[in-house]
Design goal:
With about 250 residues, this protein is mainly alpha-helical. The chain folds into 2 domains: about 70 residues, no CATH class; about 180 residues, no CATH class. It contains 10 helices and 2 strands. It has a two-stranded antiparallel ribbon. A hairpin with a 2-residue loop joins strand 1 and strand 2. Helix 1 packs across helix 5.
Amino acid sequence: MKLRAFIILFLLLVLGNLSASAQTNAGTSFGPLNISLGPNNGAPDIDSGIKILFMMTLLSLAPSILLLMTCFTRIAIVLAFVRSALQLQGSPGNQIIIGLSLFITYFVMAPVWEKINTNALVPYQEKKISSQEALDRASSYMRAFMLKQTRPKDVELFVSMAKLPPTRVEDLPLRVVTPSFIISELRTAFQMGFLIYVPFILIDIVVATVLMSMGMMMMPPSTLSLPLKLLLFVLVDGWSLVVQSLVRSFGM
């Protein structure tokens, strides 16, 4: 239900601006979207096909945009670092990594989606508020979540590039907040990945040193280090620690 609500939010976000440009044209209305094939009088609107093509392109990119505006990026990258640090090429598989990332994302984003569903989508579906007001309410919750995870330095970077006048943080447009959030997430994910790599690198160094001291230079160090890494990871309950650290990194 919450995932469905978030998809409706994205449709409002992407398609809400198209209705204003189509109010003077004859067409069919679908909620906040008004698709028109031409003006009431005069020559057909040549731009209508381009508008529909643009709309379909945005819909095809909707999953990627939704994932980039949530905690999915950090979680997926960190889990991939764990697999790489363990030197496991295909286990766990990409499907398992992505699936686990999606469910952790659903867990972390549930409070935000609940607020959007309760205060924006439900009143809009009950026709208590307009589509623009529902969009503003939903955007405020998403903006608050992203700004909480974003470094001020990254926000300042995109504010300066956008050449915005002095603006309150709460009033920053999503075109500034979203790329700032993505860059901050990438930086945080790589920091966590580095910390994950450190103990496994130490195991590789110790194993390589022992093999060289024993004169066994022809034996690949990974032959012994891989089982030791797996043993260490299992003994410390590695997956639980990684997931717990990821969830707590979002302030939960």
